């Protein structure tokens, strides 16, 4: 991928991993603004299930997504008990508690981007939400979200 205005990354492989970090040929992308640029310009390839960083016709690159194309970096609790998610692309959006799921490894994910994508919760965000998660009578988990209690789906 050409320099994209910061510095050149000469790579054959760009990866977004479940730790919420970008990698170029297995090396972490440490330039914060470049990582944010990648996050803001990542999109699903039109008509496909794979992803790319698309800045314009000249600046674009394929991306291997390890788990989810976005991660939740923080969770804000609103006064009414609902939640606002902060994502790695610096966007904020309300949590749809019905989209929240627990994977086999115990990680949380939720639908984002108007339900078109999923985002994995990073550890700090997971811990912020965990204060409102409790075990349900059937052995599963549920989230207290305002006056509502929502069962969490299990993803395998």
Topology, element by element:
Elements: E1 14-16, E2 22-24, E3 27-28, H1 32-41, E4 42-44, E5 51-54, E6 60-65, E7 70-77, E8 83-87, E9 92-94, E10 101-103, E11 108-112, E12 117-121, H2 123-130, E13 133-135, E14 141-145, E15 148-151, E16 153-155
Walkthrough of the structure:
This protein is 12% helix and 42% strand. The longest helix is centred in the first third of the chain and has 10 residues, at 32-41. The chain contains 2 helices and 16 strands. The protein is mainly β and 156 residues long. The strands form 3 sheets. It has a 7-stranded mixed beta sheet with strand order 9-8-7-12-11-10-16. It has a 6-stranded mixed beta sheet with strand order 3-2-1-6-5-4. The protein has a 3-stranded antiparallel beta sheet with strand order 13-14-15, with no helix packed on it. Strand 2 and strand 3 (27-28) form a beta hairpin. The chain has helices spanning 32-41, 123-130; strands at residues 14-16, 22-24, 27-28, 42-44, 51-54, 60-65, 70-77, 83-87, 92-94, 101-103, 108-112, 117-121, 133-135, 141-145, 148-151, 153-155. 22% of the residues are buried. Mean pLDDT is 89; it is low at 1-7.
């Amino acid at each position: 991928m050409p320099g994209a205005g910061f510095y050149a990354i000469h790579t054959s492989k760009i990866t977004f991993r479940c730790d919420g970090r970008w990698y170029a040929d297995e090396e972490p992308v440490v330039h914060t603004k470049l990582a944010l640029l990648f996050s803001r310009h990542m999109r699903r390839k039109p008509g496909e299930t794979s992803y790319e960083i698309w800045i314009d016709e000249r600046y674009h690159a394929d991306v291997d997504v390890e788990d989810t194309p976005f991660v939740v970096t923080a969770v804000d609790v609103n006064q009414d008990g609902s939640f606002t998610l902060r994502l790695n692309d610096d966007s904020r959006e309300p949590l749809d508690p019905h989209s929240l799921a627990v994977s086999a490894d115990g990680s949380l994910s939720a639908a984002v981007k108007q339900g078109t994508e999923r985002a994995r919760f990073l550890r700090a965000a997971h811990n912020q939400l965990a204060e409102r998660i409790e075990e349900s009578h059937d052995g599963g988990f549920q989230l207290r979200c305002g006056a509502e209690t929502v069962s969490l789906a299990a993803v395998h």
